[in-house]
TrEMBL record:
Cofactors, names only: thiamine diphosphate
Residue ranges annotated for the Dehydrogenase E1 component domain, each copy included: 105-409
GO molecular function: branched-chain 2-oxo acid dehydrogenase activity; metal ion binding
SUPFAM superfamilies attached to this UniProt entry: Thiamin diphosphate-binding fold (THDP-binding)
Protein's name in the database: 2-oxoisovalerate dehydrogenase subunit alpha
Keywords of this entry: Metal-binding, Mitochondrion, Oxidoreductase, Potassium, Thiamine pyrophosphate, Transit peptide
EC number: 1.2.4.4
Reactions it catalyzes: N(6)-[(R)-lipoyl]-L-lysyl-[protein] + 3-methyl-2-oxobutanoate + H(+) = N(6)-[(R)-S(8)-2-methylpropanoyldihydrolipoyl]-L-lysyl-[protein] + CO2
GO-annotated biological processes: branched-chain amino acid catabolic process
Family that this chain belongs to: Belongs to the BCKDHA family.
Length: 464
């Protein structure tokens, strides 16, 4: 496949190629230059010097500081323009029509769910929620290009990754209500989903902690891939916002991923705002992509509103991540956060309403894909109306079912910390049970599965 990502890969390979060895010898296959030439000293006539800290650096007598503001910005890769027209028709979109329709339906489903859950929170039926408006193409598009066995680490705006991988509406709703069917047994705040079956680690509120976790997991996957070459080769994929890239965890993770050469795809959603902070107040460099290059990582910037560009970039990134035993890749997906940061935020306090409305009207991943589908006579207004009406009913049905379920058993407040309850924990259980029995009006536990019986089981040592 010949597009910008491939050319970047070739340049990176050349950078670490044998040309830099002063003796002209070619290093063994799959061995980085830094390992083959680290001990080679410079000669009097050399035009380059292999300083351990800066390989392949040429000598110069010009004292010129690099001025980032004078450099050209990293370009943004796209396949389809905002009118739904394919730019290079010879290359095409690499997506079958039926697959494109299914992806579109998933994006609409995510959009409808976000709208209804946002309203539910405003009605007081949910405590918290975060929408993905304007970023549906990034999560769903990238997830559709990964292998189901790939391990995903999400932040908190990747509901589309779960949806694309098979997370059901009931799974979303059970977690939002923290009921007895919640995978997390009510121990996490809303929108902190997780699924062992789908190979997606549970979301954490602590910003950017998933990035070093992903780098570590990718190192483990690298070992597994080497030990099991005949099995499906797996990568780790990590999602985060450009605000999270300001955390130290981001820099530590990318550096260890680069030095250990792990098969990890880092996907940054650059939506323009980190909570209430615009990118102009977050950094002065060329976005997040420039940092990937700084760490020696293959890097690409992509139009996040272009579902086909997202899919193709992710596919090629996965191939590249598994090359030569593994290497990290950074993709900066460009988008605009149409919604508020969360239901706890009023974004109009720090940005103009007209700015948001302009982005809604101008371009977004759902309308762009719909234009493409309509241009191929694959979609029309009747199908759109039917899809949105049916999806709305489906979401509301799952919402109402989850709302009726009881909360998880009270025993879940104590179990799964130690293999067996400690004496101190048992004392805490007995104390809590006694308080609830003494003040039944203040502590109504009938809404919890098993009522007070959940605590009785622990005190009596049953079903630990």
């Amino acid at each position: 496949m010949s597009f910008r990502f491939t050319s970047r890969r070739l340049r990176i390979q050349k950078l670490f190629g044998a040309q830099a060895c002063l003796n002209g010898s070619r290093p063994a296959a799959n061995i980085p230059l830094r390992q083959t030439c680290r001990g080679v000293a410079s000669t009097a006539s050399a035009e380059k010097v292999l300083f351990p800290g800066a390989l392949n650096s040429e000598f110069t007598d010009k004292l010129n500081f690099i001025q980032p503001s004078q450099q050209e910005a990293i370009p943004t890769y796209r396949v389809m323009n905002q009118y739904g027209e394919i730019i290079d028709k010879e290359i095409g979109v690499d997506t079958e029509d039926e697959e494109a329709i299914q992806i579109y339906k998933n994006m609409v489903k995510l959009s409808v769910m976000d709208l209804l859950m946002f309203e539910a929170q405003r009605q007081g039926r949910l405590s918290f929620y975060m929408v993905s408006a304007g970023e549906e193409g990034i999560s769903i598009g990238s997830a559709s290009a990964l292998h189901p066995s790939d391990v995903a680490f999400c932040q908190y705006r990747e509901a589309g990754v779960y949806l694309q991988r098979g997370f059901q509406l009931s799974d979303f709703m059970n977690q939002l209500f923290a009921n007895c069917k919640d995978n997390g047994l009510g121990r996490n705040m809303p929108v902190h989903y997780g699924s062992k079956e789908l190979n997606i680690h549970t979301i954490s509120s602590t910003l950017a902690t998933q990035i070093p976790h992903a780098a570590g997991a990718a190192y483990a996957l690298k070992m597994q891939n080497m030990q099991n070459p005949n099995q499906d080769q797996r990568v780790a994929v990590c999602y985060f916002g450009e605000g999270a890239a300001s955390e130290g965890d981001f820099h530590a993770a990318l550096n260890i991923a680069a030095t250990r050469q792990v098969p990890c795809i880092f996907i940054c959603r650059n939506n323009g705002y980190a909570i209430s902070t615009p990118t102009s107040d977050q950094y002065r460099g060329d976005g997040i992509a420039s940092r990937g290059a700084g760490y020696g990582i293959a890097t690409l910037r992509v139009d996040g509103n272009d579902i086909f560009a997202v899919r193709r970039a992710t596919k090629v990134a996965r191939q590249l991540a598994l090359t030569n035993g593994g290497q990290p890749v950074l993709i900066e997906m460009m988008a605009y956060r149409v919604g508020h940061h969360s239901t706890s935020d009023d974004s109009f306090a720090y940005r103009q309403r007209v700015e948001v409305e302009d982005w809604k009207r101008r371009d977004n991943p759902i309308t762009r894909l719909r234009k493409w589908l309509e241009s191929r006579q694959l979609w029309d207004d009747a199908q759109e109306k039917e899809l949105r009406s049916g999806t709305r009913k489906e979401v509301l049905r799952a919402f109402e079912d989850a709302e009726k379920e009881k909360k998880p058993s009270l025993r879940n407040a104590f179990v799964d910390v130690w293999e067996e309850l400690t004496q101190e924990q048992r004392a805490h259980v007995r104390e809590m049970r006694d308080v609830v029995r003494r003040y039944p009006r203040e502590y109504d536990v009938e809404g919890f599965e098993g009522g007070l019986g959940g605590l009785d089981e622990l005190v009596e040592g049953k079903r630990e």
